[in-house]
Structures are given as structure tokens and as C-alpha cells.
Design a protein that fits this description.
The protein is mainly alpha-helical. The protein has 5 helices and 4 strands; from the N terminus they run αβααβαββα. Helix content is 45%, strand content 8%. Strand 3 and strand 4 form a beta hairpin.
């Protein structure tokens, strides 16, 4: 059985694997790693910004309110269009293995 640190490392690696110009939901990463979306969100929020957290969004494509301005700017730099704090997952969702 893995430790919490192993799970956190796996979450950060999964987030780092999202290509520029694409996004994934917290649940997408949770399914890859084998944990729930809330744990994914908690690990990303406490990682000190050391990974591409702006490429991870809610299941409906929205960005958490405190992060909208910065995430929108970072995503725009990668060619992802954000409208009213929401990303079109059908267009920008990364392929999951």
C-alpha cells in the first residue's frame, strides 16, 4: 500500500504530464492516480505552485474562483480559451491513458 507522499507525488507527476494547451479535470487525474478529485485538489493547492496547476479544472470546466484571473492568463498563453471562468473540455481536455 502506497503512502500519502507516493500519492501526492503521483498526482504532481500526472499534472505535469498534461501538455501545454490542454487541461484535465481533478477527477481525470484522480482516475489516473487512483484517488478522489478532492485529494487531487488538495495536493495541487498545497504544492507551492511547483506544477502546472492551471491546467487542472473542475469537472464542468470551471476554474476555482480565487484562481480564475491567474489561470486564465496562463492558459491564454498556451492558446486555451477561457470564457467566464470556464474551459470547453470537449475541445481542450487532454487524452487520458
Amino acid at each position: 500500500m502506497g503512502t500519502m507522499n507516493d500519492t501526492a507525488d503521483s498526482i504532481l507527476l500526472a499534472a505535469a504530464a498534461i501538455p501545454p494547451g490542454q487541461v484535465a479535470s481533478y477527477g481525470d487525474l484522480g482516475r489516473v492516480v487512483g484517488c478522489g478529485p478532492r485529494l487531487v485538489a488538495r495536493v495541487l493547492s498545497t504544492s507551492g505552485g511547483g506544477t502546472c496547476w492551471w491546467r487542472v479544472v473542475r469537472a464542468d470546466g470551471t476554474i476555482a474562483a480565487p484562481l480564475v484571473a491567474e489561470a486564465t492568463r496562463l492558459l491564454a498563453d498556451e492558446g486555451v480559451v477561457v470564457v467566464d471562468g470556464r474551459i470547453d473540455l470537449a475541445k481542450y481536455r487532454a487524452e487520458q491513458d
